[in-house]
Write a structure and sequence with these properties.
With 250 residues, the protein is of the alpha+beta class. The chain is built from seven helices and twelve strands. The chain is globular.
């Protein structure tokens, strides 16, 4: 570990106790952590997190208010998204997933690189406000990742892959869903119900597609996994931020 990481970890232990980040330290130990076979492509697996691909969106007391807030504002979110897609297309960009870019997968970011994207408040104010109030200000959003409208054009697909880790969890608000769309996580396929949320652990292999006649849009929100603790979240932010700095990612 770098001196900065050691100092950050020491400060967390001093505040929360000597064993408060033991799982994070175990994760960092040499060798691949025990994992489900369908998590094989993930880089980091925090020990002790349930090996459960799909989650009940209303089943976690910490996350349920976020789910209810987005669902209750779906109509306004969809209208603002439609207006932005029609009138402010330059606000969307090709989605970059790790080292690849897809022109048939468009994104409008609300949170990126550790901060809210202020310009998005003008295009999609309702989603921006709900995200800020329910996820950012409450500390439920994982700041290491992002939140964006994810638009798959007709005929587009997202190849099977695992995301980087299991200590955050992915919320999908189904904003505009044509027929012929679906998502598979750990071998189980589901469809989005417009106005409702799906919640899943994206360290498990997953893929998605749009075989419908018009774009499919979901609002994707990266939240802390509810089985992580406050000190673990602080340690994970320090760890990943330091790694990204060492790799020149800023």
């Amino acid at each position: 570990m770098t001196p900065e990481m050691e100092n950050a970890f020491a400060a967390i232990r001093n505040e929360y106790g000597p064993d408060s980040i033991a799982r994070v330290e175990e994760m960092m130990a040499a060798g691949k952590q025990q994992r489900h076979p369908l998590q094989g492509g993930a880089k980091w697996i925090l020990p002790g997190i349930s090996q459960q691909p799909w989650h009940d969106p209303y089943g976690h007391p910490e996350l349920a208010p976020v789910v209810h807030a987005f669902e209750s504002h779906h109509a306004a979110v969809k209208k603002e998204l439609e207006d932005a897609w029609a009138d402010r297309r330059t606000a969307f960009s090709d989605y970059e997933h790790y080292l690849s870019r897809q022109s048939d997968w468009q994104a409008l970011y609300l949170f990126r690189k550790g901060a809210l994207v202020a310009e998005s408040a003008e295009s999609v104010p309702t989603a921006f406000d709900v995200l800020k109030r329910e996820a950012v200000d409450t500390g439920k959003l994982c700041p290491l990742l992002e939140c964006h409208f994810s638009t798959l054009l007709p005929g587009a697909s997202i190849a099977p892959h695992c995301d980087l880790w299991n200590f955050s969890i992915n919320l999908h608000l189904a904003v505009d869903i044509p027929e012929g769309c679906g998502i598979t996580v750990a071998g189980e396929t589901r469809t989005w119900q417009e106005g409702k949320c799906l919640l899943f652990d994206y360290s498990f292999e997953h893929e998605a597609w749009n075989r419908g006649p018009r774009p499919r849009t979901c609002l994707l929100v990266d939240l802390w996994h509810p089985e992580t603790t406050v000190p673990e979240r602080q340690a994970l932010v320090a760890l990943i931020t330091a790694i990204r700095t060492l790799m020149g990612e800023g």
